[in-house]
Design brief:
single chain; mainly alpha; binds fe (ii) ion
């Protein structure tokens, strides 16, 4: 059985993950609109991954006999200044999500909830990857600057990104 404090915190995290999904879908639309189909693909996969994160928490609450309470999803930004701006916003957002996951982990420590800690470990590792990916993209874009050919090639590379099911959802 999940304790009430942890149940509430995980429900809040489900909402945060859905907000992330919505943010990345909005970024995907902006990239498509501004003629960057590869970046649009990259963010569309981010969108799917964030929905997966929400589903992992959702399944976990139910598995522990808790109650899922879905809340409204707040509006997300719709405009960015440049591809660099989109990826800088992505990194800043992922850093905030990392802090949320860390706070959740701290709560499970305070409440001696070892099962929740075990579940959260996947998310701690995932956040390291999320921040690294966003940082790599920023590094690439800074190197390319306003070189059109460089941007074209990077967009082509991002078009090749494919979705894969995260391990906690394998077979679900
Ligand atoms: Fe996430
Ligand atoms: Fe994320």
């Amino acid at each position: 059985m999940l304790n009430k404090k942890i149940e509430d915190a995980i429900n809040a995290q489900i909402n945060a993950e859905m907000w992330s999904a919505y943010l990345y879908l909005s970024m995907s639309a902006w990239c498509a609109k501004t003629g960057r189909p590869g970046m649009a693909n990259w963010f569309e996969i981010q969108f799917r991954e964030e929905q997966d994160h929400a589903r992992i928490f959702f399944n976990y609450v139910l598995q522990r006999g808790g109650e899922v309470k879905l809340q409204p999803i707040e509006a997300v930004p719709q405009e960015w200044k440049s591809p660099l701006d989109v990826f800088e916003s992505t990194l800043a957002h992922e850093q905030k999500v990392t802090a949320l996951i860390n706070n959740l982990f701290a709560l499970t420590t305070a409440e001696n909830d070892y099962a929740s800690q075990s579940m959260l470990k996947w998310f701690i590792d995932e956040q390291v990857e999320e921040e690294e990916n966003a940082q790599n993209m920023i590094d690439n874009l800074r190197m390319i600057g306003d070189n059109g050919y460089g941007l074209f090639m990077l967009d082509k590379e991002l078009a090749a990104r494919v979705y894969s099911t995260p391990s906690p959802l394998a077979g679900k």
